[in-house]
Design brief:
The chain is an alpha/beta fold. Helix 3 packs across helix 5. The structure holds 6-chloroguanine. Homodimer. Its main location: cytoplasm.
Length: 252
């Protein structure tokens, strides 16, 4: 079934890029149906204002709950949930939320309807996610990393790419999904990749890779993945499921 994706933003044109490349193909193939909405279309005042000053004081502006609610009541259509219209999942990018992971991408790739709400300025009124949770909607808030962005648009495009590339038929070669980093209970960084020529500007590819011995190649790549991960991302080694390690895995 086609995955319906609604995105709400004050800069909906930002998502015009979704008509290009793999997203465009996925849309024409009928795998996904993406609509970017302008939040201001749910305002009623001449200034089409979507934000106000923070209660309690402080810098910047906070997105108002009333406008978001008019928008989300319509897009979520929570009165009419049945077999044809399964429960949507509401997602808010938020730099103060848990990190978005491959596990989240996998879970969300099984949804039928995703609604993304892009906050701008200093954020959105905390009662918005609270209200929809209290009314039975699955609401998720995610950060995409420990750095500051101006708004949720970039974060949504990152999450969308991570989710939609997992849809059956989206990628040309589904094998490349199972082999890559961060999948399964075996989240290691990937081993290095080489192509031909075997020697280039005086640098040789590791000879074992052209030995034709598949067992040795697998072992070499596994050792490289373990070594790279412990050096670059020791936090991923901490999270490793011991059962994912084989006897020959070097203790690094
Ligand atoms: Cl989800 N939003 C914003 N504004 N900044 C971020 C972020 C999200 N994730 C990391 N930085």
């Amino acid at each position: 079934a086609v995955m319906d994706i609604d995105i709400v933003s004050v800069f909906p044109e930002y998502f015009d890029v979704l008509n290009l490349s793999l997203f465009g193909k996925a849309q024409s193939k009928g795998l996904i149906n993406v609509t970017a909405h302008n939040l201001r279309q749910w305002t009623h005042d001449v200034h089409q204002s979507v934000d106000d000053t923070p209660v309690g004081g402080g810098a910047g502006m906070v997105m108002k709950p009333e406008v978001w609610a008019e928008c989300l009541d319509e897009l979520l259509d929570i009165e009419h949930i049945d077999e044809q219209n399964p429960k949507p999942i509401l997602i808010f990018p938020n730099p103060s939320a848990p990190l978005f992971t491959q596990q989240d991408a996998t879970e969300l790739s099984h949804a039928q309807h995703l609604v993304f709400g892009c906050g701008r300025y200093e954020g959105y009124d905390a009662r918005i996610p609270q209200y929809y949770r209290a009314h039975g909607v699955e609401v998720r808030e995610y950060s995409i990393g420990d750095y500051v962005l101006n708004g949720g648009e970039v974060a949504v495009s990152v999450m969308l790419e991570a989710i939609t590339r997992l849809l059956p038929g989206f990628m040309g070669n589904p094998d490349s999904i199972v082999e890559e980093s961060y999948t399964g209970g075996n989240a290691l960084l990937e081993h290095n990749q080489y192509t031909k020529p075997a020697s280039w500007r005086g640098i040789d590819v590791p000879p074992v890779l052209i030995s034709g011995d598949h067992g040795k190649v697998d072992r070499f790549r596994r050792d490289e993945a373990l070594e790279k991960t412990s050096r670059i991302r020791p936090d991923l080694i901490e999270q490793l499921d011991c059962r994912a390690l084989d006897k020959a895995d070097r203790k690094t």
